[in-house]
Specification:
Elements lengths: L1 H35 L12 E4 L2 E4 L9 E11 L2 E11 L4 E12 L3 E11 L4 E12 L2 E11 L4 E4 L3 E5 L2 E5 L1 E5 L4 E12 L2 E11 L4 E12 L2 E11 L4 E12 L2 E11 L4 E12 L4 E11 L4 E5 L3 E4 L6 E4 L2 E7 L7 E14 L2 E11 L4 E5 L3 E4 L2 E4 L2 E7 L2 E16 L6 E14 L2 E15 L11 E14 L5 E6 L2 E7 L59 H12 L3 H4 L14 H6 L1
Antiparallel strand pairs: 1-3, 2-3, 3-4, 4-5, 5-6, 6-7, 7-8, 8-9, 8-10, 9-12, 10-11, 11-13, 12-13, 13-14, 14-15, 15-16, 16-17, 17-18, 18-19, 19-20, 20-21, 20-22, 21-24, 22-23, 23-25, 24-25, 25-26, 26-27, 26-28, 27-30, 28-29, 29-31, 30-31, 31-32, 32-33, 33-34, 34-35, 34-36
Amino acid sequence: MERKDKISTIHRGHRITSFVVLCLFVLCLLQVAYAAKPVKKAQKNERVYLIHSDELYYDMYGKNPDAQIVKGNVRFMHQGGYLNCDSAYFYQQQNSVRAMGHVHFTQGDTLSLTCERGFYDGQMQMMEARKNVVLKHRKQTLYTDSLNYDRIWENAYFYDGGKLIDGKDVLVADWGSYNTATKKAVFYYHVVMTSEGQRVETDTLHYDTETSLAHVLGPSVVTKDSMIINTQDGYFDSKSDKSQLYGRSTVINGNKTITGDSLFYNSDTGDAEGYGKVVYVDVENKNELYGDYLQYNEKTGYGYATLNALVKDYSQKDTLYMHGDSIKLFTYNIDTDSVYRKVHCYNKVRAYREDFQAICDSLVGDSRDSCMVMYKDPIVWNLGRQVLGEVIRVYSNDSTIREAHIIGQALSVERCDEEDHYNQISSNEIDAFFTEGALRHICCVGNVKVIYYPVDENDSTLMLLNYTETDTLRTYMSEDRQLEKIWTSKHVSDMYPMTQIPPEKYKLPEFAWFEELRPVDKDDVFNWRGKKDEEKLKSLNNAAPPMQTLRKSAAEPAQEKKEETDEEQPSKVQAGELDKDAVPEIEKPEELSKNE
């Protein structure tokens, strides 16, 4: 019996030990689980406290049996915030307050909220303010009739129309929120922001009160003075007048418009910079500038375009399309009646108009005299005529060419028929004058060589080939481009019947025909086709010109002028006598500099 009791005692000890071990194990597991689970930090004073009221009573059988009814200088406190009002229902068990009359909630010395009535939920730390609500946070003030202020997330929501005032910036919207921690606001529906004369209208606006930066989304319109901005996605800095626009935006300022996939615009300085299919339109001067990258300053009138750059000029009857690797636009006397513009287009330039096509390496256009100066292997086509030289100047009048001046190794070629017959003129210089787009007068000076095919008036067939060498030549053409009269100084000529023309006489030594390089339409200006290296003009040596034997008489003024030009004076191009204003003053391209 004694042994049995002893064994029983030992078993009980083992059971107790096992139970203690098991309890310790469970406690360890609970500790680990508790440590792994995020625990909300304990809040002090979680209850809403009534600090003061002049009256307090219960309405046990009324509409609010669970409420303490307090009146007169009522003041509550919760989590560092204070709520004052004229009267209130205090639901102590639910930890909430329904306040009425001169409701004023404060949090520290930075936030103040006033309204006519409100409901404060201590559990959610939510203040619901109604009627004539005014929320003041530092320098910002929000006006609305319905506002919920979430103290946990420090966010104020309004949904019945609101107005935020931040210094000189005023924002109005149907819905919105303001965060007192980040000092950022988000407004929705019928949003209007005004700031020192600037007005923003949109459906969605994000606003940072610290940086005064506004971000609009959706169809938005910004106006300031004569400026109008249309954008789908834009950022506006009310302090610096800077804008960043995305989503195919447009800036309109008076008669000038710039559109692009991305635009950076400063209304104070007038600077605009665009990326992606950028278009600048000057309605007053009837021209447009295109490029995948474009700069423009509306106050100075300076523009720059590259990457698919294009100029469209529709100031005349037919639109001129001109493309180059880079295009610059300069405006002079911009705010005066004598305003004029220059266009600099360089590297692989191609131009197209119905009556005029051209290619060259560099080009300068001047609106004062509607002149274009082309450098480095330029070629110009007009109807069936092709002209080329070292430098070509073309003047337009209304919708047609008025004059063309070819300087240095000048060559004019006109196709007569489909059988490879060409009227040809080569000279040091050629001046051509047009009437309504038709060539009427040609003046050639220096080493002139001519091949000309007279036409039978009866059947328009070619009669013969006339070859002439002279020093100076002037020709006058009829309206149907037939030769009316010709004047020349001392010359030598040969005439060949059409059936007896020697093969070597069909073309001048300088003859060249580049029809395959000619732009065929406005879209073809983007397709560069230039001369081959062996076809490019080379610098002339000092070899005696072909007609030097004809100018031995010292009595001829032409001789003295020519000898002075050939031997003592540099060419007009070298001397810069073409047009001092035609050379770009800013960032002149290297190729243009070499050809001056």
